[in-house]
Amino acid sequence: MSRRGARTLRGLNREIVRCDRCPRLRGWCESVAKNPRASYRSERYWGKPVPSFGDELPQVLVVGLAPGAHGANRTGRMFTGDSSGDWLFEALHAAKLCAHPHSTSNKDGQELYGVRISGVVHCAPPGNKPSLEERDACRPYLAREIGFCGPQLKVIVGLGGFAWDGVLWALGERGHTRSPKPKFGHGAWVQVGPYDVLGCFHPSQLNTFTGRLTKFMLRQVFEDAKRRAGR
Question: Which domains, from first to last, does the chain contain?
Fold first, then answer.
């Protein structure tokens, strides 16, 4: 890793993949890769920190919690290879923000249009619950990524309360704050510095199976993001 740190989005992604700040998470990712689900035993898991994915000049940045153990930790691409990704990419495709309505592997030809997908944490955590120390070790990458995205970035979508908090923290690190702290909710909107920050329930099975989040609700968030970005 360069002592000066990365200076571009591509360089930041390379830095993320090499990151070893959280031994517990690295160990978990590798353990899952060595013990895949029966349906994926023919595949070679990524088993490392997962880099961000998408346009290098994004107008919309989508931020999730962390990679899924058998989704992104398997495929090496954010929100790729699990049901959460199926919901996310279907909504993006409906808004004409990506090439295909599904994302199954990092070789499926998926392309994002003016959109980039990242996470507060880049390693899959046990039980989808990183510790506070692991969160704090990883979220500076998000603050740097926002800066590298450039002035055309207009909208940041936080998928779930964890991501919402991570986005607000990252913007605070970049000198953009709101007081009192804006509350998360589906459809929440707040302007922080030059950015419109939108809240959206995470497309996890906990939310989609219970009907807390519907496909219509998710699509509406990205239609709103597209409008606010001037697309």
Answer: 9-228 (3.40.470.10)
The first and second tokens of residue 99, run together, are: 């090439």
8 Å CB contact between 122 and 51: yes
Is residue 23 reached through a cis peptide bond, with omega within 30 degrees of 0 on the bond before it? no
Report d(CA 217, CA 142) in Å as an integer. Answer: 26
5 burial type by CB count under 10 A (0-12 exposed, 13-18 middle, 19+ buried): exposed
Long-range CB contacts for residues 100-105, cutoff 8 Å, separation at least 24: 103/77, 103/79, 104/75, 104/80, 105/75, 105/77, 105/80, 105/81
Which tokens sit at 179?
Answer: 């007081």
Bridge partners for 54 per DSSP: 116
* Average pLDDT score over residue span 58-69: 98
pTM exceeds 0.90? yes
**Residue labelled with tokens 């899952």:** 32
Residue 64 contacts residue 202 (beta carbons within 8 Å): yes
